[in-house]
Each structure stands twice: as structure tokens, then as C-alpha cells.
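Typical record is below.
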Amino acid sequence: MLDDVDLTCEAGEIHALVGENGAGKSTLAAIAAGEITADTGTIERSGRIGLVHQHFALIDRLRVWENVVLGHEPQRGGAIDRGAACAFVRDLGERYGLEVDPEAVVETLPVGIRQRVELLRELARDPGILILDEPTAALSPSEVERLFGTIALLTQRGVGVLVITHKLDEVFAHAGRVTVLRRGRVVEERPISATTREQVARAMIGGEIPAIPAHEPTHGAIAVRVAGLAVPGAIENLSLQIATGEILGIAGVEGNGQSALADALAGLTAFRGTIERPHSIGVIPQDRLLEAVIPNWSLLENVMLGRERATSAKASWRIDRAAARAQCTAIVERFDVRAASIDAPLSTLSGGNQQKLVVGRALVDNPAFVIAYNPTRGIDIGATATVHTELLAARNRGAAILLISFELDELFALSDRILVMTRGALRGEFSERRFDREAIGRLMVSA
């Protein structure tokens, strides 16, 4: 996994760690934080190392203050001093621009606020080094800006911050140095001032980034019609259409009804109104661990999930194992899923390789309608190019695609039209690939 890796994060610096999925970035972070023991090597540190994982480790049913002070609760008269704990969380949040209600139950909070709680929990332990693993994967542009404002405050106070990310724009905007891992080895370490985005990208994937095919003029008949859609507590009276050969992008800050829209179109939630769509549908869910995979099952078993009929022997209820293995192998090869074998547990794969398997499963049968919800969350630039290429290829074959993404660059790269969704309603439409970043950003945060 890792081979003779040297890395230094100095006090008061932002150091970016980048690399392909499975390069060893998260493993290195876990070793540095003491969660995994290395076979050989040494770790020297000044102060505690804090680690904020890509997938949050909060206890959802507890309140914010309970998560933040867990294990070092303030005491009064032999009992936990709830008032002191809440005051501590408020003061810490104000100090670092991470304001959050200490009494809020974590499971009721949107992802951006949950990340604040994760950060507060680590900051409460006064780290000398803070490691952030894919910290902006599910944040809106405004939340990303706010997060890096907090990181700047930390570095001013002498904290070294190691940011693991696939987003090179953020690396070059905020980091002082960058280290590139490829297949468990350091292949480049430079000051940001001494390298370029293109050099780092080539170092990450060991070559040139695959070219993405152009948008071909394939719009046809309307394939998906939604009229008067209402989902209690999330959407009221929403209507839209998607043509064959069209990618309709949905922009918006997370928590504004996107999940309810995707679930309704996928047939996973009750709704009012009408939905007309093809029976042939592929779904890339928002959260692979909660909605798409069973980590302890093998790659083969996960590929078969929801596709039992597609791999059944004709005129029989029995699954054709040979056909299933052939399809799983085809997905692994086509989407460059790096695994020891298709019989290996999915949990042995990096998050990015798990995501590539989920995307491959959704697209392998060439569905007429695709729901793609943050399809490239947490995957590297090479894998992102592969997923984008496959989505555009599906579009160019005539599929209707609903693309929900919190990455404006992804929406701009793939969409034929973009609708902005705020508080369960559509606030604006941008068509003919004439996308105005500032105008879309304003609508995203409109009341």
C-alpha cells in the first residue's frame, strides 16, 4: 500500500496531498493519526495529530456538544456540566468561524454543518497538525470558501494543515506545497510556485489526462416528464422535462430538495404529481456506502445487486454466475476499478474505486434514463475523466440524463441545460450551454 514514503507538514503551512484513488493517501493519514500501525518507519510530531475523515465519524443521534466533548466532558459535582460544554462549543466555533448550535442533534444537520462539527471535535483537542481527507467533496462553493477561511485561521495560529484532495484548483489556490502519491510512492514534492496544474495532473496519473468527447447534437423526443411533483417537506409543485440525448444539470446547495427529486424519479419515495420516464434506468446514488453497496460483500456480489434479472438464466429464476462474472469483469476493466479480484470484499478498495464500480454498474446495460447524483464525488482526475466520458457517451447514444452535482465545473462540463434548485423549487434555467457562474451562484443562495 505504501512504500518508503517521506512527508513533512510544517507548522503554519497548508500542504496538499494528491494522487489517484488507491494511491495510499488515506492510509498514510490513518498511520499519521495513529489509527493504523505501519510495518516500518517513524513518525515525528510536535503536538497531537487530528484527522477528519472523508466519511464522518460522528454519532448521529447525539447532540453537537456531546460529539465535540466526547471523552473529555467538563464535570461539575460528579456529573457532566452541560452548560459548560455548550459554552465551550460556542466559543470554539466563534473563534474559528465554525458556528453551530451545540444543542442540535447531528442527524438533523446538512452535510456542511456536520463537517463543522467534525472540525470542532478535532480542534477541541488542540492539534498541532490537522489532516483533512477530501474536506470539500460535498460542499457548496460558499461552504468551500468558508472552510478555507477557517484553515487560514488555523495556520495563522501555527497549526500545520495537510489537505488530501483531488481538486487541483483548490490546491493551487490555497496550498504552499504539494506532494503527489502514485501507487504508494512519492513521485513528486514541490512548492506550488515551482509547478503547474498540468505537471501535477500528469504526475498523479502517470501520463496525460484522457480527452473528453464533445457534445454531439442528439436531442430528440421528450423522455422524462415531471409535472406538479410534490414530496412532503422537500418539494412542492416542481415540473421539468429531459429529452433523449440531453444532460439536464441540477445546481444547488445540498439540502434543497435534490435528494427527494432523485428518489422520486427512481421510484424510492412517495410523491404527488406525475412522473413519466423509461423503464430502463440506471442510478448513481448520492452516498455509495448508505445507498449503493454492501462493503463486506465482494465486487461480484455488489455488481449483481439490483441486477439479478439481468444476470438470470433464460426461463429460470437462477442467476447465471458465468454471465454475472463476465459482466463484473467487464465493468472492472472498462472503468479501471483496481482490485485484487472480483471476489475480494468491496471494503478492500479505496473509496474512489468503489465509486467507479457503482458508476459502472449503473451504465453497463446502456439504460435509457440515468440519474447521476454527484457521480465523481471523491474520485481522482483520471477517474473523473473516465466517468465524464461514459456519461457523455451515454448521452450521445440517446440516453436522457439527470445530473445532480454540487460541483459547478462538473455541471458546466457536462450539462446541456442547468436548472437551479433552491428550497425545493426551480429558480432559474440556463440553456444552450450559456452558463453564467455568478448568476447561478446567486440563485443557489437565494431565499
User: Anything to note?
Assistant: The chain has two domains: 14-205, 222-280+365-444. Residues 14-205 form a domain with the Rossmann fold fold (CATH 3.40.50.300). The first helix runs from residue 25 to 32. Residues 201 and 207 are 8 Å apart (CA to CA).
